[in-house]
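Appendix B. Chain record.
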Amino acid sequence: ASSQSTEAVVSTQSTGDVRVFHPGAPSYKNTPIKTLYKQQEAYKKRAYGKRVLEVERGSFSPFVVSTSGGLAPESDRIVRTLAAKLATKSTITYQEAVSMVRVKLRFALLRTCLVALRGTRDRTSAKRLDAVDINLVNYM
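Structure tokens predicted for this chain:
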């Protein structure tokens, strides 16, 4: 008799949430930047991590960015992972992919902040979220 082994395919949903903070705020005056990043990541994990793990059975990664342009350690890992996957699927180098992902993320966050502050320019032709193109490869 032949024995067959079956491998269970585990598919997990990865969820993230963005947090932008200003390290120059008076309340952060005497706190080192590395500590601030860890505090901000811990806050997001406390707020969402348990629910994502238990209810959605997925993983949660906070994406923490400072207004000075820095990334928290977990955010940097996300960028590097995206860049590595992008570099393997295209003709660009890993370093070019990292730069491109960082630039795209910064402009996307800036655009989001501007829309939140002043609103959209044209409310009648607002795009639905599922119609927005987020494919980074198209922008090379």
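Further analysis of this model is presented in Appendix C.
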